[in-house]
Amino acid sequence: MKKIILFSLLLSGSLVACFAQHDVQYTNYNFSKLAYNPAYAGSSGVPSFSAIYRNQWLNLEGAPSTVNANFHTSFYENKCGVGLSITADKIGMLQNTYVDLSYAYRFKTGEHGTMSLGVNGRLEHGKVDWSLANPLDLGDETIPSVEAGRYKPNFGFGAYFERSNLYLGISVPQLINSTLYRTENITGTGTDYRTSYLMFGYLMPLTKDVKFQPGVLLSFNKEVPFEADITANFIFLNTFWIGGNYRLGDSFDAIVQYQITNELRAGLSFDFTMSDLNKFTNGSIEFMVSYTFDKRPLERKAENINNLRYF
């Protein structure tokens, strides 16, 4: 009975997320900004790849699991950027896949700043695996006996400003009301499917070998509670990152990252759940890896110059 109750609560929460078109969340959002803002494409100045795997609410059957992989690069003398992001998200009986293609135009603002304006086109695929259902009344004709799936297009836009020590972005990655699940006997009352994101980060040197990096990600949608991630990282010797994140009303998160080489970085985070779900789960875990390709000529790679990216 406990599993049925938990599954029902989980499913009802997942449906709210579907109707609000609320994108998946990442504790390492600071290193997956292309999933939130298309204007971030090309901001590294060199080809960049990153991937995240998130397993939410460990030990809770049917809990969300998410995989995201993205690649972006600049071209035309860093004036333009293009990116590709692929997300596979599963929660309970619902399986969602998003493929985003982003384009950004970049231009200088002042002596040190760069402004990017971006758009993204998205193909969404939603599928309900009814074989995972455990109906109380066998033979209920309202429950399909086979998997159902639909494809829908979407698009969004964003703006992103950056300097060497800060960034500021605003975006709405989904503008079209999607109806992926409405013909599959799933109904809801949500009417506003658009989620807006505001992100900000800053880099503050504390000593020669220690830097402090605070950041925040805010999301706004009338159909779901206000969400805020507030992050603080300490960076030691440009190699070891340790910090934490507070997700409003949901969790405290521990973050660790290691810069293996100038190009390769790996990270791990763990979310300590504060909500009532902490009675049933040990928390959430997330793995992150990123690689920034170094395009400098071989003779310059011996110089004391690196490709480290703080944002």
Outline the structure in words.
By secondary structure, the chain is mainly β. It has a single domain (2-301), classed as monomeric porin ompg (Porin, Beta Barrel), CATH 2.40.160. 7% of the residues lie in helices and 49% in strands. The protein is built from 2 helices and 15 strands. Strands 1-2-3-4-5-6-7-8-10-11-12-13-14-15 form a 14-stranded antiparallel beta barrel. The model is unreliable at 1-21, 187-192 and 297-307 (pLDDT under 50).
Number of helices: 2
Q: Please estimate the helix content.
A: under 10%
Trace the largest sheet across and list its strands: 1-2-3-4-5-6-7-8-10-11-12-13-14-15
The overall pLDDT average reads 82
Kindly provide the radius of gyration, computed on alpha-carbon positions and rounded to a whole number of angstroms. Answer: 21 Å
